[in-house]
TrEMBL record:
One of its GO terms (molecular function) is ligase activity. Keywords: Aminoacyl-tRNA synthetase, ATP-binding, Cytoplasm, Ligase, Nucleotide-binding, Protein biosynthesis. It comes from Paenibacillus glycanilyticus. This is Glutamine--tRNA ligase. Its EC number is 6.1.1.18. Residues 460-533 form the tRNA synthetases class I (E and Q) anti-codon binding domain.
């Protein structure tokens, strides 16, 4: 994981923490955490939070924790836990032994609630959910005290114990903090600390039927683990007073500090768990790892690399509030990462047959072609050449426009790594008039690498040998959504999905790639960067996902 001082020095969170640490508020080492709920999959926005926490911990010589906020048994599943661990490690952030579960602190959090009740700072409330909303007030009007607010500590302790024992139906009682119903911050208007839920938890099973709310569990989990900085996205800024209230009332020594950074959004990308779930369950995409989704699983399957995501987040730098970034910037860094590390290969998507009439019949030869023109370390490969090849249909035109430098009747081009060829005859279907094949001649003196310095041609095109190519499928991706506006509640996604977001084609490709492994990446000359699909590839058939095209639409500002 890159943790350059130059990058962090520009990060407002780094500067803030540096200034605070000068006052030596902690006697323990730096410790940060990422606390995902195990009710969905991580996405590109999660990556920003993960890397921010991990880089700051590393820079200050501390540790990074992965802690699951698993206090809602209705939505959580071990499937998500395993996926989150795998995705974080793929991203290049390995918490090693520092993987924790909020549910493991259930007894300590319960005892903290008991302490607040004894101090007169928490009470059991019988208001219904609708009444709680009504009593809470609005942004312009203060709330009203619950009629149960003045219960004695003894009564509250008895009721809370019965809640734990399962004596009351779900929704009939909650434990609330006793703070200030007139507070301008609605989060401080006697917030709910515990609720009753009868559901099996994926770790604790049926041991508990009361569960703490995140705003109560969050500061306590941080304090238990010795977290120094709880780095949260900006929407938690209004929750910070409650975070601090809990720790102060429980008299935590050297309490952790909550600090906020901006939330990352990308143009044309859905990161809402609710909307992503609708896309998956509605069958609009091929599961949570669909390469069109911004989940880390989807990005990985498409072929994005951890290094490119790191570089992308470094370029974004410090986000103070909500920030919308053009998705083409992420594609730019994928392209930059793959440019020098990826071997090139020739693949033809719209094949046009070419017969080289003067090439010795039944002859063939092996040509040496570089694997990457920008990285000699990737070496060269042998490419079979014979008298029948395929080129791209768009690389030939009977009546080309001015400036066209590919093949035309009577014109010459160089075949990549091979010879000059000249088009002598165009063979068409007698009925449709469609071009069926070209008959060309080659100049044996123009072999690449032969030192030939005679005639020159302006165009070079790629090709594959008809005898030594294989068929493969490719998935070409575009934006999933037609516009930025998400469906309203109850509205169908059908009208929002781009029908061209996935186009499947068959290509002819050099045969040496037939043993390519899942996630192995190649540059298809002129077509972009491609990665072997992990889900659809079989031992007998290759499927490639286009990661990004070669053209870069993002330009760095001056």
């Amino acid at each position: 994981m890159d943790n350059s001082k130059e990058h962090l020095a520009e990060h407002h969170m780094f500067r803030l923490i540096s200034e605070e640490l000068e006052r030596k508020p902690f006697s323990r080492e730096m410790c940060t955490r990422f606390p995902p709920e195990p009710n969905g999959y991580l996405h590109i926005g999660s990556a920003y939070a993960i890397l921010t926490n991990a880089m700051i911990a590393q820079h200050f010589g501390g540790t990074f924790h992965l802690r699951f906020d698993d206090t809602n048994p209705l939505k959580e599943d071990i499937e998500y836990v395993n996926a989150i661990i795998e995705d974080i490690k793929w991203l290049g952030v390995d918490p090693k032994e520092h993987i924790y579960y909020g549910s493991d602190y259930a007894e300590q959090i319960y005892n903290a609630a008991i302490t607040l009740i004894k101090k007169g700072k928490a009470f059991v409330c019988d208001l219904t959910p609708d009444e709680l909303t009504e009593y809470r007030g609005t942004l312009t009007e203060p709330g009203r005290n619950s009629p149960y607010r003045e219960r004695s500590a003894e009564e509250n302790l008895e009721l809370f114990a019965k809640m734990k024992q399962g004596a009351f139906p779900a929704g009939t009682k909650v434990l609330r903090a006793k703070i200030d119903m007139a507070s301008p911050n609605i989060n401080m208007r006697d917030p709910v600390l515990y609720r009753i839920l009868y559901a099996e938890h994926y770790r604790t099973k049926r041991d508990w039927c009361i569960y703490p709310m995140y705003d109560f569990a969050h500061p306590l989990q941080d304090a238990i683990e010795g977290i120094t900085y709880s780095l949260c996205s900006i929407e938690f800024k209004d929750h910070r007073p409650l975070y601090e209230w809990v720790l102060n009332e429980l008299e935590m020594a050297e309490p952790p500090r909550q600090r906020e950074f901006g939330r990352l959004s990308l143009t044309g990308v859905v990161t809402s768990k609710r909307f992503l779930k609708q896309l998956v369950e509605g069958g609009f995409v091929d599961g949570w790892d669909d390469p069109r989704l911004p989940t880390l699983r989807g990005l990985r399957r498409r072929g994005y690399t951890p290094e490119s995501i790191h570089d992308f987040i470094k370029e974004i730098g410090s986000i103070r509030n909500q920030s919308i970034v053009d998705i083409s910037l992420l594609d730019h860094f994928v392209r930059q990462d793959l440019k020098e590390k990826t071997a090139s290969v020739m693949a033809v998507m719209e094949p046009l047959k070419v017969i080289i009439t003067n090439y010795p019949e039944e002859s063939e030869e092996r040509l040496l072609i570089e694997n990457n023109g920008e990285n000699e370390a990737l070496g060269k490969r042998e490419v079979p050449f014979s008298g029948t090849i395929y080129i791209e249909r768009e690389d030939f035109m009977e009546e080309p426009p001015k400036g066209y430098h590919r093949l035309r009747p009577g014109g010459e081009v160089r075949l990549k790594g091979a010879y000059f060829i000249r088009c002598d005859e165009v063979v068409k279907d007698p009925v449709s008039g469609e071009i069926m094949e070209l008959r060309c001649s080659y100049d044996p003196l123009t072999k690449s690498g032969s030192g030939f310095t005679g005639r020159k041609v302006k165009g070079t095109i790629h090709w594959v040998s008809a005898a030594y190519c294989i068929r493969a499928d490719v998935n070409l991706y575009d934006r999933l959504l037609l516009d930025e506006e998400l469906p309203k509640e109850g509205e169908d996604w059908t009208s929002k999905i781009n029908p061209e977001s996935l186009v499947r084609k068959q290509v002819l490709i050099e045969a040496h790639v037939k043993h390519a492994e899942p996630e192995q990446k190649f540059q298809f000359l002129r077509h972009g960067y491609f990665s072997v699909d992990t889900k659809l590839r079989t031992d007998d058939h290759l499927v490639f996902n286009r990661v990004v095209p070669l053209k870069d639409s993002w330009k760095k500002p001056n």
